[in-house]
Amino acid sequence: MGSWHIIFTLGIFLAAGLLSGTLGELFRLPKVTAYLLMGVILGPAIFDLIPHKHLEELKPLTDLAMALVLFGLGNHFTLSRLKRLFRRVLPISLGEILGTFFIVYVGLLLIGEAHGASILLGALAIATAPATTILVLKEMQSEGPISEYTGILVALNNLVSIVAFEIIFVAVYFFQGDSQNTSVFTQLGHLGLDIFGSIFIGVFGGLMISYGSSIIKGSRRMVMFIALIAIALGLCRTTGLPYMLTFLAMGFTVANSLTEEEVPKVEAELYPLTGFLCVLFFIIHGAELKPTQFIEAGLIGTSYIVFRLVGKYVGVYIPARMRKEEPEVSAWLGTTLFAQAGAAIALSQIAFTRDPVLGGHLKTIILGSVVFFEIVGPIMIRQSVLRAGEVPLINAIHHTAGDPISEFQSMIRRFLVSFGLLSEIDQPPDQILVEQLYRKNVKGIAQTATFNEVISFIEHSHDNTFPVLGPQDEVVGVIRYQDLSNTLFDPKIGSLVRAADLANSLETVVYPDDSLARVWTKFREDSYDCLPVVSREQPHRMLGVIRRWEILKYYIKGHRSAQSSDLKS
User: Kind of pairing, strands 530-534 and 542-547?
Assistant: First the structure.
């Protein structure tokens, strides 16, 4: 298809990211999965709307996104934290790495795959997608042993996968009698230099960031961060060094050379740029996915997927049970490691440049399986931390406080008022009664509603305060959205807890004949965003709700109207 300016493509990707994020909330998908699926739709797999050369031209931005994610991951690895966790994590990591490697290797041999390809695929299977995994955990704001262990396991997986793949690739060529006129020791020496070089750049860059943070203040700090990260990335790309190790080392160095209070500030300053670039990263990555490659991978590709899933799960489950970890860790930690993309794709590309036949075969299988792992992986990560109870309930609910229809009506009204086509206010706010303003078509939650029914109600509401009703529709209490922030999501309590158990007593009620001035006083005394309107007769039957922002809107209009009258006089 024809081409257009790359800025237009950038705008399409960002608009698509905004839309897919909204759709992801609607369909309860991780945003990462929604971005990837939107990329698949825009890419050659379906509509082929994006010029192919633009995907390549935007590659530096996706590399920078990955670098920032890895840098942020490394920021969490202080020595004190690693010492505290290493004894617990190391046996699980060894079990997961060895379990994945041998199950994939032996499984592929049993179905007829060649020995060289099988052992190399076993090494590739160890790698876990860092950007996908870490961003889903951040989106869910999960906290607990699974979330903590996952970050360390992801870093170790990619480190071991890169080193193991390079060593095994050299060994395969040695035993095949084809060393490409280079000795095994020479090739291993190059590998050692690559690892040392990438870590050296990361450590040096991390020290520069820490030093710069102490002498550079204000907005210039952001420029300094991006400059050093971009220089390090450019050096790795120019010299062919594995940049994933560089930015893990850089983040680790910053975490251990800055004060404990300064490290979160560095990550917070970079977070807006990281989030922006990660939207592009996953949209572009999705546009590069080709579902047909899943079919091309055939039996070997399908088997690789199954064996890798089994290896990750069993590799964690057995050592976790042996070490008597919490049941949630043994049950759900392995499923947080399913996602796979960056490192595996890069290593298969390296293999292709060295040996088009063997490398081409590996690349076909990896690209085909990545289609599965990148779509299913984020969903499994989300489900894992949810089922393990590491997510506050408020983060598990895709609740939106904005009502699109009301906001659209307000926008049109403001537009008409600004052109004098509509009166800004019909009567002074003090003369307006609640019955003139409250919303009648609003329902409450029955006090007998189950926990799951409460969650469903909240997800489909645009308020943050939810009346709980008795058998005669009388208001017996309220549930506030912000009160759920300390409640952990536990599916096991869904059939036990009722709305009445979650409700707080409501000391403030509003009647239809109350004035707005009286109601506004009540809003100022409490933090409610809306209050139930009830009948005066007993029991106080719910009639609707009145919202804080709607009263505030009328007071603002009254103030403007008074100012306008003063100017005219």
Answer: antiparallel
Closest CA to 368 of 337, 342, 345, 343: 345
Contact 365, 121 (CB under 8 A): yes
Edge-to-edge strand ranges of the sheet holding 445-446: 445-446, 465-469, 475-480
Alpha carbons 532 and 443: distance in angstroms, whole number: 10
For strands 465-469 and 445-446, give the pairing. parallel
475-480 and 542-547: which strand pairing? unpaired
Q: What is the pLDDT of residues 489-541, one digit of tens each?
A: 666 666 677 888 888 887 777 898 888 888 888 887 777 788 889 998 877 78
Q: How far apart are CA 63 and CA 70, in angstroms?
A: 11
pLDDT at 301 over 60: yes
Q: Can you list the positions of beta strands (E) in 137-244?
A: none
Amino acid in the structure at residue 208: M
Cα(507)–Cα(511) distance, integer angstroms: 13
Helices (H), 289-355: 291-296, 298-322, 327-332, 342-354
DSSP 8-state assignment for residue 420? T
- Decide: 189 and 167 in contact? Cβ < 8 Å: no
The rounded Cα 562 to chain-centroid distance in angstroms is: 48
Whole-number Å distance between alpha carbons of 104 and 127: 13
Phi/psi at 515 (5° precision) = -85, 160
Residues with Cβ < 8 Å from 363, sequence gap 6 or more? 348, 349, 351, 352
pLDDT grade, residue 1 (50/70/90)? very low
125 near 348, Cβ under 8 Å?
no
| Biggest distance spanned by C-alpha atoms of the chain | 99
Element counts in the chain: helices (H) and strands (E): 23, 5
Rounded distance, CA 154 to CA 132, Å?
11
Two structure tokens written together for 486? 């300390």
End-to-end CA distance of the chain: 64
Reply yes or no: is the peptide bond before residue 539 cis, omega within 30 of 0: yes
Q: What is the pLDDT of residue 398?
A: 65
Residue 71: pLDDT band with limits 50, 70, 90: very high
Average pLDDT over residues 455-484: 82
> Residues in the chain, how many?
569
Residue 335 has pLDDT above 70, yes or no: yes
* The amino acid at 256: N
CB distance 509 to 477 below 8 Å:
no
Contacts of 258 (CB under 8 A, 6+ apart): 210, 213, 266
> Distance of CA 251 to CAs 17, 81, 174, 341, 391, Å?
27, 14, 36, 21, 26
